[in-house]
Each structure stands twice: as C-alpha cells, then as structure tokens.
Amino acid sequence: MEQQQGMAFAQPPGQPQGHQAYPPQQHPQPPGDPSGGPHAHMARQHSAPADPSHPHQQPPQTPGAGGSQLPPAGSVSGAHPAQKPVDRKAAFSKGGRRNTTGPGILVASRAADEETEDGRIRNREAATKIRDAWIYKQIRARQDEFTQYKQARIFFGTWNVNAKGKDEPLDDWLCSDWGENGEHAPDIVAVGLQEMVDLNAVNVAVDNKSQQRSQHWVERVRATLNSRRNSNNDPMRAYTLLQQKYLVGLLLCVFVKSPHKQRVKYVHSDSVGVGVMGMMGNKGAVSVRLQFYDSTICITNSHLAAHRENVAGRNADFANIFSKVSYDIGDEAVKEVIRSGSLSQWATGTSSVGIADHDLAFWMGDLNYRVDEQIPTDKVIELSQKVELEELIANDQLNIERSQGRVFQGFEEGVLTFQPTYKYQPGTDLYEQRPDKKLRAPAWCDRILWLAQEPSHVTQLSYKRSELNISDHKPVMGTFAITIKDVVQSKREEVYEEVMKLLDKFENQTLPMVGLDRISLDFGEVRYDQKVTLPIKVTNTGKVVAQFRLVPKLDEVTLCKPWMTVSPTYGMLIPGEQPATLNFTITIDNATAHVLNTGREVLEDIIILRLENGRDYYITVTAKYARSCFGMSVDELVTYAEPIRNVPLDPIRRAETQGPNPTAALCVPKELWRIVDAIYEKGLHERDLFTASGIAEEVYQIRECLDTGAPFGEFRIHSMTEVLISFLSNLSSPIVPRTLFPTLEIDAQNIQSCSRKFLEELPPIHYNVFVYMISFFREALLYRESNKLSAAKLARICCNCLVIGSNETNPMEETTSSIQRRAGMQLIMLHFLETNSI
C-alpha cells in the first residue's frame, strides 16, 4: 500500500463503553408485554371450578485516530492479536435470504448427485462448497498472520426533515466533532434523511420530486463537508461521494475522504419498501455496502411504521427489511473476502450477501419507537423538558423490544443522554403542545445502532443530537472509532499456499472413510418447551480427506422433521483431525405439541449422513413425548378429569379409555382452576405482578405439577403467574377467535352493544374461560394500591393471552385494518374490567 500520512496505526479499540446490548432471550415473552409474562391473583370463594362467573452518559470520549488517512503499519508482527469470531447471524436465521431449511444450510440439491457403477455417490457442487468452507476456516484461523489492523473514524447523521430544509447551515449537525482544526474529521460520512418529500399518495406512487430533492440534499451535504471552513481548501481533506440511494422520502449518501477513495471497492446499494401493501416506499429502507480497505461495511437508513401503539408493526418492518436487503457483489468480491478470512456463513453458492454478512453493519433512521403508553403523554413531556430521562429510557419501546429479543437482535446502541428528538414545533425548540395540533408524547424516534462480527472493533465516541429546528424532529449524530483490516497480499498468499499444500497432500489419495460413535439416538422422555441435545461424533478413520453432509430423504426437501435441528449439517475432516461433533436437538414447541396431541405426529425420524464419494449412514432418532396441557385447546382439556399426562397420545388407546366422542366434564380446564386457586393462596398484594418474571426451574416444576396432578410446592408467586399467562398464551387456539374482532371503530356510544354481541358469539367453553379470567383480573384490581396494577395494563395482558394466543399471524402480514380491530378488542377488554357488564 502506498505510503500515506496522517492517521497512525493503532491496535483495535477496547470493548465499546456505555452502550446498551440486549441479547435475545431464551424464552421470549408474548408480543405486547415486554416486561415478561402477565400475572394476576384473585380471592378464592369456591372449592371447584363449576361456575365460571365466580372468580377466584454519553459514552466516555476515547482518543480517536486523528488525521485523514490510514497508513500501513510498520510491520505485520504488530497486528491485532487473534480473536474468536462472534456469530451474530444466528438471531436472524428465520425469514432470512439464505438457502436454509430450518435445521441449517442445505449445501447442495440431491439433483446434482452422481452415482458411480459401484454404488458410490458424489455431488461435485457440495464437495466444492464444503472444500471451500474448510479452506475459509483455516484461512480465518490464521488471518492475523497477514492482516494489519488500523483505526478509522466514521460519522453517521440521521434526520427526519419533515419535507423542510432550504439553506440553513448543517455544520452544527455534520461537523461539530471535527475539532478546531479538523483533526478529528471522520474518514467516512454517512447521512440518512427521512421525509425529504411529503409522503403523499402521488410522491409514494410516482418518482415525482424524490430525485430532485435527493440531489439537492446531496449537494448541501457535500458543500458542508468540503466548505473552506472545514477543508481549508486542502484536497487531502476533501470528501468524495461514494454512493447515494433514495426511495421516496428516504435518502442515504455516503462520502469518503479523498485519500481513501482508492481503497474503497465493491460499492453496492439496495432499497426495500415496506409501506402501503407491504411494499410501497412511504416506509422502508435504503442501504449501501462497501469494502473499505479489507473490511466490509454495511449502512442502512430506514423509516419504520408510525404510531405509539404499533410496536409490532415496527418490529415487522425491521424483520422485513433485514431479510430482504441483498447485494449481488459478484463472485470475485466473494472470493477475495473469503481468501482474507472475512466473510461468515457464505457457503450458499451465491454471490449475494445481506446486512449481517459484513464485518460492520450500522443501522440508523427514524425508527419511530416511542415511550411506552403506560406513561401518560403529559408526564412524558414534563420529564423531557426537565431532562429527567431515566424513567423514559426504561420505558423506551426500542429498549424494551431489544431486551426481549424481538427486534435488532445482536445490535448495540449507545446510551441515550439527550432529550427525546420528537415531536417539536417546527422552527422552535419547544415540544409540540399547540391546542390546534394533535398532542404526541416526545420520543427518541431517531436512533443509530450497530452490529459487529468482532464487538471490540467498534467504539462509539459520541452519540448526541443537533439543535437545528426547522423540522419536528431534531437531527441525531454519532461518531465511531472502528478497527479495519488491511491485508498484506504477499503474506496472505503465503498462508494460502501452505493451506492448499496441506489439503492437496491428502486429496490425492484414495476413498474416504468415517466412523460414527453411534447410529441410533434415543432421547427418552421429552417435555413441552424443552430442548434436549444428543451428540454423535464423526471420526475420519481413513487416510484421505472425508467430506460429509446431511441430505434429505428421497422425495423430501428438508433434512429432518421440524421438531429437530442438527448442527452442523456438513463438515470436513483430514486424517488425524479431532472428531467432529454433530448435535441433534429436539425442541417441543407449540406447533409440535399440537400435532403430537392430535396423533398426527410421533417423535421418530431417520437422518441420512452422506460421505462424499463414499457411502450413506442412516441415523435413527426416537423420543417419547411427556404429554402436557400446554399447547392444547380448552375444548379438549375440559373433557379430561384425570391428569393430562395419564391420557394416551395414541388416538386408538385414547378412545378405548375415554370413549370415541368424549363430552365436556368441566366448565373450565382443571389446570386453569388449579393455578388460579394456587395464586390466590399466595395473595394478590404482591408488587410488580406483571413486570417481574418467575424462576425458570420453578416454572418447569409448576408445569409438571399441572400435567401430572401432583400438589404444588412452595413456589414464588411470580413463577405461578408466569405459568398462568403462558398456559393461556400457548393454547392451540386462542380464547377469542380472530373472527370475533370488532369490525366497527369502538367508541363510547357502541362499546356496550359491541361487548354484548361479543359475549353472545363466544363458543361455550371459551365463554366460560373468558368470564372466569375477566372476573379473576377484576379481583386483582381490588389490590391495585399494593400491586400497582391498572385496568389499562390488564386490558393489554388480556389481549396478549386471550386474544392473540399462539396462533397469531406473522406480524409482517399485519394490515392497518387488523391492527385497528385488535386495538378495538383491547377497548372491549378494558370495558369488561372497568364495569360490571359480566
């Protein structure tokens, strides 16, 4: 690399300080109740469930790399020490762009199998991919032998301009962290705008003004960055536009300091509309990816669904964008990144990469997450004006959703130390409170997050807002110190040659052979909501390289049944290498429990392990389901007076003991009555009943008591209430069918009639359970002074566990109409809780 001046070589920064990282939870709670499973208590006035109506700082500043260029290190020996890669893609395996089939990557189709005269099978496509994957693994393990690590600065600015903006200076937003003489000017600048045009029907449907406005803003940003004040007319401090991408009101423009331009390549962009009809550009994202030196960077600017109550819509927009954004970077780009040991999860036979396939991914924009509705609007305004942010941050919807693993899984964000950026009276620094305008609670709509394969390679230096006031949003900006890779080509080729020589030594010999430590897996008895894993060790017993992979059975497309996953699904072993371990995991979720309870499925499967250019191995898997009331319907549960564990799964045996057409023996399921009765014994006064989670081991034991009929032990109240809400939320069909959602807008005039009609149309057993639970929640409200419950909170809980249930449709498919109807259902719940309508 040509010798440059300015930025000194540096080791990677330490772990980012002052950021909020929320890992996905092992057992995520139902949507709409981010604090955990809802719980309630009620006074017992009965001995059996016969009558359902009778209830029982800113991050510390770290020294940035000054100057504008990235000179090579003095020697490769000063490279950053090896670090174990962090797999941050696992959280996004569902709904992604990849060729996955649940258990893992399907490396190649069976259509490409070739069978020889002696019965051996070879798939050249699979062999090539598995071989390349092994080479990648070896290269990545040795990447520090040929990689220098350098420091760079990158700036992100996001602003919803509300279709405003003409000639006001942008320096306070874009250049406030540059230092007196520009010594801290960033190496890359990425600016994202939202609503650069009005989001009216014409602009959304037709490229009416977007191109003109996007060019206007790009030129304004360019002029600001390259002004005499900022660049001092020095061409080495000037910025060059790498890429711009717009979609209706969205714009993303990425600039790089001119000296770095020659080290930027493979620049690509994409856009995704998720607005009207799930595809229009009034909401969506624009994204740009690039290779900066030898690190890959992805930048996304998005505008997600609006309205305070529409959290699920925003989560769905994120998932939709994340799964659809894709860049076809070409085979050469993929090969280069692989040879540098930089691209993870690439072995899918495609030159297309997504957001998480990059070393560094940054996501900014008007994400539209608000402060939770449990804090009244007036109080949110008061706290925002006083800059008393702790309570607001704790109730920030994005923080809540991330903590529950429902959105931005694996991403990190700096600490919010600035006031909410929305909604302001345009042209002022006052929150919008004019009487002729709709009153909205201030919120941190405008955010910047990041995702890094190596978390220590990103340090946020600042995260703040600008005070420009032409819009109803304040601009937000963040500056980061990032560690980038600079590959020494000659060193890399030496390592590559060594790896290839080692591989060639064994590939030129005879056929592969492997040994399995067992070919039969008996998982024994498995329970609901339980994951059980058993391993099989694969050992190369031959004298040549052994490549193996799992393949689907004949006329099937998946590797195994949906209740099982296997990882990894392929691998390669050289002679003498430590055995590979294949982990077989059975998971009993709601869908699996339902088909097991109905007798349509049994826990038996055969997995085919294929040795490339060798034989197939058949692995049998068996398990026995310990039947549970979770995942069943209330209509079936009321037909059994005995513990559900004693009821046979086999339909024929069940008919012999229960009769061919069993009738309801109870008004409500005995399991529901038992848990409610036990909760009452614990009392209704406990604080944080619906915000504190139970203890996992106790939750498991309580479920066992319900399924076996065993008496309850001395369990904590929050564990009991978590089981209650989990039971209701995980019924195979919710208590309130979607067909009963109100079709009219609910108001004070029609809520009485709508509520009455709703009750009349509920199926009998569902009616019993609904009345029983509403009475239960009313009883809990009698202790609101001590348990801090409210009718509004309980109404949301009712919707989560009685209405939505386990069969809720994909939130990405939700329409405005269905969201409104569900909101109407919540109002009906509130009506029942606050009145004596039942």
Describe the structure.
- The protein has 838 residues and is of the alpha+beta class.
- The strands form 6 sheets. The protein has a 7-stranded mixed beta sheet with strand order 1-14-15-13-10-9-8, with helices on one face.
- β4 (147-160), α2 and β5 form a beta-alpha-beta unit.
- The radius of gyration is 30 Å and the shape is flat.
- The termini are far apart.
Structure at a glance:
By secondary structure, the chain is α+β, with helices and mostly antiparallel strands.
Keywords:
7-stranded mixed sheet, 26 strands, alpha+beta, 838 residues, 6-stranded mixed sheet, 22 helices
Radius of gyration: 30 Å
What percentage of amino acids are in beta strands?
Answer: 15-25%
Note the gap between the termini: 78 Å
Helical residue percent band? 25-40%
Please, what is the average pLDDT?
82
From the spread of the alpha carbons, the general shape counts as: flat
Which segments are poorly predicted (pLDDT under 50) over 5 or more consecutive residues?
Answer: 1-68, 71-102
Number of helices: 22
Biggest sheet, strands in spatial order?
1-14-15-13-10-9-8
Strand segment count: 26
The largest pleated sheet is described as: 7 strands, mixed
- How does the helix and strand content classify structurally? alpha+beta
How do the strands and helices of this protein lay out in sequence?
Elements lengths: L18 E3 L91 E3 L5 E3 H18 L5 E14 L10 H4 L13 E7 L6 H5 L4 H16 L2 H4 L7 E9 L2 E8 L6 E10 L10 E9 L2 E9 L7 H14 L2 E2 L2 H9 L12 E2 L6 E7 L10 H9 L4 H5 L2 H7 L8 E3 L31 E7 L5 E8 L10 E12 L1 H19 L6 E3 L3 E7 L4 E10 L5 E6 L12 E4 L2 E4 L6 E8 L2 H8 L6 E8 L4 E10 L8 H4 L13 H8 L11 H13 L13 H13 L8 H13 L21 H11 L2 H18 L2 H4 L3 H14 L11 H19 L4
Parallel strand pairs: 4-5, 10-13, 19-26
Antiparallel strand pairs: 1-14, 2-3, 4-17, 5-7, 6-7, 8-9, 9-10, 11-12, 13-15, 14-15, 16-17, 18-20, 20-24, 21-23, 21-25, 22-24, 25-26
Helix pairs in contact: 15-17, 16-17, 17-21, 18-22, 19-21, 19-22, 21-22
